[in-house]
């Protein structure tokens, strides 16, 4: 009998199906790997298992009985625990306090806490995980590896039968990874099942018994890891065929617009060098956290960097703040539209002039007529669906919000457009419209740089593709190269060589 | 669509309706309320809070707060007192100039503390500033109350327009000036680039920064403007009471102003609030005070009622933003 079984689980969000008839089976005492591209639905799956989301369709069967979790507490009561990528550690509290954070022991007939006992138990459980540490010390004084062990200790202490680990090694050093692997194996020996979500194939091969591959919210395969190799896993992950939803146009490549040389930022970017031309779309591919956004935040002046040179129109450029970057003709559409792109409480028209307000003045006051005209032009040109430009931008759909952000940048008359995940969370129709806007820009001789985690989009729209991994550029592929396909890009993004 | 518009109008007009309701209740409760002179009294009592509320409004729009407003206004008054008593300056022009410079400097300093010293939230820095200013106010006039200001200084706070012999007390000049300032504010906040930027910095500082708006400069301006308005308020206080009393620095000017702004639709979350809403909020508070006095309620009860109004206003604020967030979620579906 399997420990946990998902059958035909479907979870929808406005405009997207995050999980589609997903199935998953975890046996008792196995280490089960789960992989998939960015946005394949892994996070949603974890949240269904831990009771954060309730699926619309499908069943969860635990040890032969159908269960349904209304909230994380119910999932925990059934023995399901999750160690998230972002740890839930209160750094200023002791290790013991963190472990007992929601189940502190009280003395009999007294409101006071049984600290002696708790310290003892905390020490014991940490010891069983191979950590002989002082549990009375603040958690924040220990490194990430031990903080993660504290999270695992919490799971062990509720007698978890299934521990989900979401990219547990992403912030650990080599030694800590080795220790984690040892701990995971010892948990398995105790009969605890582990669902191990990772971006690193070598870890899966080393650790897992079986592996499940997801793509587009669907189950692709579940196999013994011994039956798989690097290539078969990657092709299972990408497996999509390119359809014709990409309205790619041919343009002539112009002069160099932007050149970056030896950009370094401690812990984020390592010697990043590339150039982008007018009249082309330069795609940036890679896994989440590969340093693509960080590269362009540094170029745009949103974050600082340690060293490196930036040239615009072949002249050295100094950019310290976003204001400098805008003045020099750079536009940066951020991936987080609501948090960084728009002022949701303000009107569409105000958001459209957010970056060019100084240009919309007539004497002391804002030139409302000019802004009206601009808003009308933007709404028509970008096909923004609104009834009135005085509407608050927070009321619009994702696609329309994105078009407002694009309008904001077009109104600055920029020459270099950096689009970070421009089609994330918007529907298919709006996606094509965003592609057409990019086409329009390169036809007008502008330079477009597109960061995207959707490989078909990268391949469908880019003239050249640069692949990044762990803050480094892994290689570049041109549109006319035979190697420009999903397999090659994925291999490079996962650390392989381009060949 | 139409019902949405209706709801919008109702939610915007709600403070005005509440004010009208309050007027009706008080008119029935006491016949001393709805007289021409009492109305003028309310306007007179609104002026100081109205000016300080205007100071508070701009910082609230940027999701900040300025707790030093009342102390700043009193310090400005006391600086005039010091110049008059210690240095013998009676030229109203110089006194008023000193008053305004003091207010501006304090505001500018608040702005610097927030932006350049990266203090976490202006609540802390302006609370500290409030205490510093209370002390300074006492210090500059050696804890004495200063009186006998020249007419040029008290003019703004004490004059009345169209005063007549048949008993009409006249329209208080300070309220007329308040309306003029509010008019300028209206144009400034709604029609100028800087005004629009203030709302944007308040609504989403990160988006504003990434859009090339220098948030630091906007914030420094906002706190300086707040200081300037406090100086005008200090001038009116001197005119109304004919004295500069340093111990008034601890009066609840700041909470009254916050209450006026929140009642008028501003939010602690920033990005929202209008000057006309603030006017209604300020009128509401002075009407409550005035009505309770006419009903012979003790000052202790007045404190309790005003306190409850503030709590109710904040409650309305959080409920409103929760409802709006919910409406957004529903609209997105």
Sequence of strands across the biggest β-sheet of chain B: 1-2
Largest sheet report of chain B:
2 strands, antiparallel
Low-confidence stretches of chain A: none
User: Termini separation of chain A (Å)?
Assistant: 45 Å
CATH topological fold name of chain B? ABC transporter involved in vitamin B12 uptake, BtuC
Architecture (CATH level 2) name of chain B: Orthogonal Bundle
- Report strand % of chain A: 25-35%
Q: What is the CA–CA distance across the termini of chain B? A: 16 Å
Helix content of chain B: over 70%
Question: Number of helix segments of chain B?
Answer: 13
Give me the secondary-structure category of chain B: mainly alpha
The Cα radius of gyration of chain B reads 20 Å
Task: Identify low-pLDDT runs of chain B.
Answer: none
Rounded mean pLDDT score of chain A? 90
Q: Tell me the overall shape of chain B.
A: globular
Structural class of chain A: alpha/beta
Largest inter-chain interface? A-B, 38 and 26 residues
Please state the CA-atom Rg of chain A, rounded to the nearest Å.
25 Å
Blueprint (SSEs and pairs):
The complex is a heterodimer of chains A (499) and B (333).
Chain A: E1 4-13, E2 16-26, E3 31-36, H1 42-49, E4 57-62, E5 65-67, H2 72-77, E6 80-83, H3 95-99, H4 115-128, H5 144-157, E7 162-166, H6 174-189, E8 193-197, H7 201-207, E9 210-215, E10 218-224, H8 230-238, E11 256-265, E12 269-277, E13 281-285, H9 292-300, E14 307-312, E15 315-316, H10 322-327, E16 330-333, H11 337-341, H12 348-352, E17 361-362, E18 365-366, H13 368-381, H14 398-410, E19 416-420, H15 428-443, E20 447-451, H16 455-461, E21 464-469, E22 472-478, H17 486-493
Parallel strand pairs in A: 3-8, 3-9, 6-7, 7-8, 13-20, 13-21, 16-19, 19-20
Antiparallel strand pairs in A: 1-2, 1-4, 4-5, 9-10, 11-12, 11-14, 14-15, 17-18, 21-22
Helix pairs in contact in A: 5-6, 8-17
Chain B: H1 2-29, H2 36-61, H3 69-87, H4 92-115, H5 122-140, H6 151-158, E1 160-161, E2 171-172, H7 173-191, H8 193-203, H9 205-210, H10 215-241, H11 253-263, H12 275-294, H13 299-332
Antiparallel strand pairs in B: 1-2
Helix pairs in contact in B: 1-12, 2-7, 2-10, 2-11, 2-12, 3-4, 3-5, 3-10, 4-5, 4-10, 6-10, 7-8, 8-10, 11-12, 11-13, 12-13
